[in-house]
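Per-residue structure
===
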Amino acid sequence: MDTPTKKRGRPSARDKILDAALAVVNEVGAPALTLDAVAERAGVSKGGLLYHFPFKEDLLTAANEVIADRLLAAREAEAANLPDTPRRPLKAYVLASVYNRAGNDKFTTKMLAAGSMLKESADPIRRYWKERFPEIAEGAGFDRAALVHAATEGLWFMEVLGLSPFTDKQRARVVETILAIVDDKVLPPAPADVEPGHTAP
């Protein structure tokens, strides 16, 4: 997958429209998004918006392309700070995901809650998810990569849907455990303050 091209100079009308669309989604959700609201937020005419995005689904598709580009860029930024080892892509993916380096979680939460990920406009996200696993698994092996991917995505889905049972300390231990699997590292037993039923003194 190609690296997203860094834009220079003043943002184009298309970029402003997409930024505005994500802001509106964050405020009201994808189903309530209107082209009028996006045009007003972007500071462009309705005709100017329709020139780039004739239909709402076109706009949502392009917004999801932005989200996918951010996810890839976040992974690559993490990888650039890690040693060049066969498991670097897998570790970079975990770090980018668990720390929301792309800054997408607030948007994707609104999309998921509204069922927008079930529509064709979510195809860019589906393609990214489909392409991601082979990219991060290379050099790590299927078993390790699949377990890490399932654990990372499970943690993410629980959190964006507000279903995580973990305290902050327990979450940190889960992340530490996932990274230990990536690095083939054996962790000492979990500290007492992350065990279920522990109460702080």
About this structure: The two ends are 50 Å apart (CA to CA).
